[in-house]
Design goal:
single chain, mainly alpha, about 0% strand
Length: about 270
């Protein structure tokens, strides 16, 4: 008996398992989008609720996660009133205003850099002011009169480097060697995030050295990097590279988004 043949047009109309897979992925994407829209409001409001918590650790978390104008305004009000008694929380508040470049709070942050009772908060305020408005920071810092305490010296050097002024680099090296654990951590992070890119751009970073952002630097590495800095015109390198930093950060953010989306899709496909 001859086996019946299937007409070509029937084959074309037969649903393939790959079409089912594509449909499932599309359905998951739509469902995820709907869930994001539905849950986005509570997710945005949660940090604002945490800012009002009695638990200092929750207030810190709320500051780190806040992205809304209401959250920024609440943080600024607490700082201006002096009603936040925990220095670690005030540091997180200051960090948030600087990280999100809230220009309207520059004066508040600058005042804290000079007057907050905690040196740890003051150093964070110097950096935040430089992030908020580097040009205004440069003009302000020339007239400011910071204290002579280690935290003030460290904060000013860190803020100046963030604004593109490398004159405080020797200060960072000194406190990376001589400071207490917290001061060393701040100095190492400043050297990693702000000085290392300058040496990389100049081709003078040690090729065999891989470090984390807050990882302590061995004494030998500190000596070697400081020696290499002495042979370079760091200010010229900073002036040349600074216009490209914003573009580089945009590329980094977009790359992270693409990578995250790819990993999410790969995870969904794996389950099929």
């Amino acid at each position: 008996m001859t086996r019946p043949t299937v007409k070509p047009d029937r084959i074309l109309r037969r649903p393939s398992r790959w079409w089912w897979l594509a449909g499932a992925v599309l359905l998951c994407g739509v469902a995820a989008g709907v869930a994001w829209e539905v849950l986005g409001g509570p997710k945005t409001r949660l940090p604002e609720l945490m800012l009002r918590s009695e638990d200092p650790s929750r207030r810190k978390w709320g500051a780190w996660e806040t992205t809304s104008d209401q959250g920024f305004a609440y943080i600024a009000d607490r700082l201006a009133e002096g009603s936040e008694a925990v220095a670690d929380v005030r540091e997180a508040f200051v960090y948030t205003l600087g990280q999100h470049e809230q220009a309207r709070y520059f004066d508040l942050v600058a005042d804290l850099a000079l007057a907050d009772p905690s040196g740890y908060v003051r150093q964070a305020a110097w950096l935040a002011a430089a992030r908020i408005d580097p040009h205004r920071f440069t003009a302000w810092v020339a007239a400011a009169s910071p204290g002579a305490a280690p935290w003030d010296e460290l904060g000013r050097a860190n803020g100046c480097l963030e604004a593109g002024d490398v004159s405080g680099v020797p200060v960072l090296f000194r406190w990376a060697r001589e400071g207490d654990t917290d001061q060393q951590r701040v100095a190492f992070r400043a050297l990693y995030t702000r000085l290392m890119p300058l040496l990389v751009a100049a081709g003078r970073w040690p090729a065999d050295v891989v470090l984390g952002e807050i990882e302590p630097w061995p004494a030998a590495l500190l000596d070697e990097v400081e020696r290499r800095c002495a042979t370079l015109d760091l200010q010229s390198i900073a002036d040349d590279t600074r216009p490209h930093l914003a573009a580089a950060q945009l590329v980094t953010r977009n790359t992270r988004r693409v990578t995250s989306a790819r990993e999410w899709i790969a995870t969904v496909l794996w389950w099929f």
